[in-house]
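Internal ticket #5521
Category: modeling
Description: The requester needs a full-assembly model to guide mutagenesis choices. All entity lines are attached below as received. Residue total reported by intake: 642.
Assigned to: D.W.
Attached entities:
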Amino acid sequence: MKLLTGNDLKTGDVIWWNGLDWSRFVADAVDVAEDGEAILQREEASRRVNASYIIDAEQTDEGPRPTHIKERVRALGPTVRPDLTLKPADPNAADWVI
Amino acid sequence: MYQYDQYDQQMVDTRVEEFRDQVKRRLAGEITEDQFKPLRLMNGLYLQLHAYMLRVAIPYGTLNGKQMRMLAHIARKYDRDYGHFTTRQNIQYNWIKLEDAPDLLAELASVEMHAIQTSGNCIRNISSDQFAGAAADEIADPRPWAEILRQWSSFHPEFSYLPRKFKIAVIASDTDRAAMKLHDIGIQLVHNDAGELGAKFFVGGGMGRTPMIAPEIRDFVPADELISYAEACLRVYNRYGRRDNKYKARIKILVHELGKDEYTRQVEEEFAHMKELGLNPPVEELARITEYFADPAFDTQASDELDLSDPDFAVWVDQNTDMHKQSGYAIATISLKPRGGIPGDASSAQIDLMADLAEQYSFDELRVTHSQNIVLPHVKKSDLYALWQKLDEAGLAPANLDLITDSIACPGLDYCSLANARSIPLAQKISEKFAEQGRQKELGELKLKISGCINACGHHHAGHIGILGVDRKGTENYQLLLGGSAAEDTSLAKITGPGFTEDGVIEAIETVTDLYLQEKQGDERFIDTYRRVGMEKFKEAIYG
């Protein structure tokens, strides 16, 4: 599957296209299939997202999981600071990255 | 310490307001990201893996308590309560909001700080010896020269669009604590036979994907012509440095391709021309700047006696303090490498405390080291125990300076969009593995340096033991290197062989350190034994 991701222009937060809007959680991301480039162009113009691009991912029981480790680190947060990730209460959250 | 004059302050304040307008226009959609990106980079604002990252310049790593306290304030107000001290003697914040950046920069400007030229193809923050002005072995304080170079290079119109970024280091002793020969230009202040002050120039060093040690191109440039000579070096590079290929654009490639002799000939030709133009700073200006770096009011009666009856304190004194030029004083290094910690990270509370301690015990001065530690340069020996107790309470007293757990590590894949592998978890695991004081002490001086990609921000080429993280079909893999040094015996480390998993590279480090202890003769450091024994024996031990 293909996901569309980028950074929030104002805050810099990592964000994912959920089909209607942008979410900070990769679990909300949808497969953009062949439409990624068109959505990317439209959303960049709307000034919500910055530096957006399309990545490969696989569908899992927990939702989309980016293929490359770099994107998984982006999706969660720094593995060395669990308190700063999107799952601060889950001590094993980094297992999903690695 | 240097203090801004009205021109400095006006330049920085004006730049903040200019950037405020640029941010406003970007958010309003009046300029595109392609137009905005070079503007934000000129102000040190990157877009990194998780958010915008701001790199704040700390000129030659020197700052005072008020400035340090501002860095803590920024961590609290604009970031997530911590900062990361870097291998370029700067600090980075990882979670900055674009909409906050102008206010943040205005607050920085209020304490004579900025983020200008911490990115882009320009002359970056000038680096220097963290012991400058305090070291017993220096022939002069290098900071006035670093400051003059800072002023010369700030907004220098001719050098704002160089082929590639450009880094200059200035030192003033034979002991190199600043990795001087691994800079684009390395400058060592020296005396000539007549006892006059001048500078030795080394040009074309660097790490990155093509590491090179800068060759010496001039053994003596009179001090009052130092700027002209630096300008001549830059002019030749600016004219002939490659702009067609980013990976071949650094000055080291030009010097290598032209050859040291031809590059030097061209510099000398340019220098002769420069001298005719009379562009050297006026002597009065050199004197004015030098005055800012006059020694503080040392107590000349201060005692050298030290009560070392507390064994933990004694270990810290032995490991983390250095000889000061003034009797009765010591240079104290605060290690930002706690057991299992993140190299170079400090919380806002820790940054505040270090500011307080600098004001109380070190004539209001701090230094950031390229090894990601903090120095209090002028501590009275009679104050060391009280200082150590306060550091210890705050988790800032690891007694590991220059030991294996005092590793350098870049942010790696946990933060950096360029990285291929994580550096920090590896540094943390090695720290845990070797944390026992007796064990790391037995290994002695051992510079371990970890980079998460070939750009080498973690200086892996210069590690006695270096680690380079690579991407191997989507998984992290680590190459092991041995034999590098960033000191006066500068050398480049060599790759041992095939890479390892994270656990595998830690095992390999155990193997090479065990071999070192077996082979060590007398007082040899790891690097000495490696150089004597050679790579083959280490390879054999690692790979069988």
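Resolution: model delivered.
Comment from assignee: Chain B touches chain A at residues 26-27, 29, 33, 47, 49-52, 80, 94-99, 342, 413-415, 417, 419, 422, 424-425, 428, 474-476 (CB under 8 Å).
Ticket closed.
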